[in-house]
Amino acid sequence: GEDVEQSLFLSVREGDSSVINCTYTDSSSTYLYWYKQEPGAGLQLLTYIFSNMDMKQDQRLTVLLNKKDKHLSLRIADTQTGDSAIYFCADAYGSSNTGKLIFGQGTTLQVKP
Amino acid sequence: EPEVTQTPSHQVTQMGQEVILRCVPISNHLYFYWYRQILGQKVEFLVSFYNNEISEKSEIFDDQFSVERPDGSNFTLKIRSTKLEDSAMYFCASSGFTSTDTQYFGPGTRLTVL
């Protein structure tokens, strides 16, 4: 079946940029999403990118998509301690027309003051 | 801003008991979903629901699971006879007018089966 993979942990200093990476296998992906999960909370939509785009910028967030390599990244500029959370990459599985999302295992971002 | 709500936030039950997890999707959304996240594991798709019927379900969603939209606002997930391995965080999500619209998630219900 289709799969999404992420590295498990990233630690950065406050003020640095963070880059969280994700790879996916779905050849017919339509949209790719980034969700944020703070401790004990639900999944908060951060941003998304349509599969025919290469890049999307939204304030401190930059999403890069390399469709050939099936690689997605999320860059957070000027990372703050409040950005500490788990970040999930999710693929809107293109072969399903029901909206099914396939999630990566999540990357825990630790921001040190 | 409209949001998806879920109740209860935490449910503790004995193995073999039935549980019903409740969700109120965003008003005027047409597509509804349940996902679950076992502690330390990926968020997994369970089921999608549109036009009062299941449009897709995963292998996890066996005969012990059912979903219902009883009154046009609530969306429920029932587990008929809970097992220990059903312990997880269950997330409800809804999306707007097409299946490719962005899904908005509720805060989750933590189910603990003893």
Order of helices and strands of chain B: EEEEEEEEEEE
**pLDDT under 50 segments of chain B (min length 5)?**
none
Strand content of chain B: over 45%
SSE-based structural type of chain A? mainly beta
Number of helices, counting only DSSP H or I runs of 4 residues or more of chain B:
0
* Portion of residues within helices of chain A: under 10%
What's the rounded overall pLDDT mean of chain B? 93
Low-confidence stretches of chain A: none
Radius of gyration of chain A equals 14 Å
Strand tally of chain B: 11
Order of helices and strands of chain A: EEEEEEEEEEE
Rg of chain B over CA atoms, rounded to whole Å, is 13 Å
Which bin fits the share of residues in helices of chain B?
Answer: under 10%
Mean pLDDT value of chain A = 92
Terminal-residue CA separation of chain A: 40 Å
Enumerate how many helices of chain A there are, as a single number. 0
Greatest interface: A-B, 24 and 26 residues
Written description of the protein model:
The complex is a heterodimer of chains A (113) and B (114). Chain A is mainly beta. Chain A is 0% helix and 56% strand. Chain A is built from no helices and 11 strands. Chain A has strands at 4-6, 9-13, 18-24, 31-37, 43-50, 55-58, 61-66, 71-76, 85-92, 101-103, 107-112. In chain A, strands 2, 4, 5, 9, 10 and 11 form a 6-stranded mixed sheet that branches. A 5-stranded antiparallel sheet of chain A has the order 1-3-8-7-6, with no helix packed on it. Chain A is globular, with a radius of gyration of 14 Å. The termini of chain A are far apart. Chain B contains no helices and 11 strands. The interface between A and B is medium-sized, with 24 and 26 residues.
In short:
Chain A is 0% helix and 56% strand.
Topology (elements, then pairings):
The complex is a heterodimer of chains A (113) and B (114).
Chain A: E1 4-6, E2 9-13, E3 18-24, E4 31-37, E5 43-50, E6 55-58, E7 61-66, E8 71-76, E9 85-92, E10 101-103, E11 107-112
Parallel strand pairs in A: 2-11
Antiparallel strand pairs in A: 1-3, 3-8, 4-5, 4-9, 6-7, 7-8, 9-10, 9-11
Chain B: E1 5-7, E2 10-13, E3 19-24, E4 31-37, E5 43-50, E6 53-57, E7 65-68, E8 75-79, E9 88-95, E10 104-105, E11 109-113
Parallel strand pairs in B: 2-11
Antiparallel strand pairs in B: 1-3, 3-8, 4-5, 4-9, 5-6, 7-8, 9-10, 9-11
